[in-house]
Design a protein that fits this description.
Length: about 425
């Protein structure tokens, strides 16, 4: 089967922002290596990193060789692109830990193990920068790029001209030279002729192509993807709790699934092209089906399923779907008890809680559980009225004023979910 045209593939998916002239022809001539850099400032990637990851994955699927660069050296400096302030620099031990974690995550998306010529490769720029002295760098690299050229970059101008900017350090100013040298290094030693990244990286990437031209006497190419935005103007990849991470210990599969499920119709049409490997005809069919019955949220459900399965696994996806039905479906006490502690707390995030000793459970009557002791309802009288109205549930099952709480009601040996009506929840926590 003939490999797909990479530029055409990412164009219909809305993943192409800009490409240097001649890039498409360059890719059609032979298998090419292209790289994307990843910033190791945390021990997990987040969904903001998914666009360049998907770029590399599509690149490999189109028959070309993806190279993932973990910026062990550049992570010690700090890229000024898109930043309003200089970030904290990390020590070597922290960077090493973060790099190892990122390697494991990238392996979920890219084939590093294949014997094929286009098997993915992972490199760390610290390997070639660690023994490079400052004098050698300014002599062998710095003399080839003028200050005027560097000052003309938007990433530099935006920082220097920003209303709240305090300027930028020499360390950050030289970042584009270090990243440019990475491209030159990979061009000379890994036969890598293309660098890809977000549209805010165009200036850094073209500095690399300039070094390849001036020092390597060759030709480098650039491909950038758009910076993803949300239709409501809020920042993509952020939830109320901060970043949406790929590591399930930082963002549970349930919250990850919910992030995509809660996409607007407009965003879902865009995201399903970018964050899945579904073919164009399948996506177009889903979009048409969704537009005919938007209340069914067909696009959001398929998007959430595809990306959760890709980032996590089938078991995590099944658990996320089951957890999602707890609040909106006809779930039972058995369904609740299948939830692990993290997912249970995620599902009922923000629900009021009352903590007490486990020894108090056996003597806790349903009236006290609802009002006097815990404060869920205002008074014992209100609790009795609610029970008489048949509006009280324990773990999603209706109860009467004769109900006796016990260990049988514990979820994960510590929680009891109380409920009045459809939306008024309260959690008892026993320790």
């Amino acid at each position: 089967m003939m490999p797909k045209n990479f530029i055409k593939e990412i164009t219909w998916r809305g993943m192409l922002h800009d490409a240097m002239p001649g890039t498409e022809e360059h890719l059609q001539e032979a298998m090419r290596a292209a790289y994307v850099g990843f910033d190791p400032t945390a021990d997990s990637l987040h969904i903001g990193n998914l666009v360049p990851i998907m770029l590399l994955s599509h690149y490999q699927r189109c028959g070309h060789k993806p190279v993932a660069l973990v910026g062990g050296a550049t992570g010690m400096i700090g890229d000024p692109s898109g930043k309003s302030a200089e970030r904290n620099l990390l020590d070597e031990a922290t960077l090493h830990h973060n790099q190892e974690a990122i390697k494991r995550q990238l392996a979920q998306f890219l084939d590093f193990e294949s014997d094929a010529a286009n098997a993915a490769e992972l490199v760390n720029n610290y390997d070639w920068m660690k023994n490079f002295s400052f004098l050698e760098f300014i002599r062998d690299v710095g003399k080839h790029i003028t200050v005027n050229y560097m000052m003309a970059k938007d990433s530099v101008k935006n920082r220097l001209n920003g209303e709240t900017a305090d300027g930028m350090s020499f360390t950050e100013f030289t970042y584009q030279l270090v990243q440019g040298y990475d491209f030159l290094q990979l061009y000379q030693n890994n036969n890598c002729s293309i660098q890809m990244g977000g549209s805010d990286q165009w200036g850094n990437i073209t500095t690399g192509t300039e070094l390849i031209r001036r020092i390597g006497n060759g030709k480098g190419y650039a491909i950038t993807c758009p910076l993803i935005t949300k239709s409501d103007g809020s920042k993509f990849g952020k939830s109320e709790g901060g970043n949406v991470w790929l590591d399930k210990n930082r963002t549970s599969p349930y919250k990850f699934y919910q992030y995509w499920l809660n996409s607007s119709d407009e965003d879902a049409e865009k995201y399903i092209k970018i964050f899945t490997f579904l073919e164009q005809d399948v996506i177009e069919s889903l979009i048409e089906e969704h537009r005919e019955a938007p209340h069914m949220r067909i696009l959001q459900k398929r998007l959430a399923e595809e990306i959760t399965l890709l980032v996590h696994n089938k078991e995590d996806l099944d658990n996320a779907i089951a957890a999602s039905s707890i609040l909106f479906g006809k779930s039972t006490a058995d369904d609740l008890k299948k939830l692990d502690e993290t997912t249970f707390l995620d599902v009922f995030d923000g629900v009021p809680q009352y903590k007490m000793a486990i020894s108090e459970l056996s003597s806790l009557g349903i009236i006290a559980a609802l009002s006097e002791k815990t404060g869920f309802l205002k008074s014992n009288g209100e609790a009795r009225r609610a029970l008489k109205e048949n509006s009280i549930s324990v773990n999603r099952e209706k109860v009467t004023d004769s109900y006796e709480l016990g260990e049988k009601d514990l979820i994960n040996n510590q929680f009891v979910l109380l409920q009045r009506g459809k939306k008024n929840y309260f959690i008892l926590c026993f320790k």
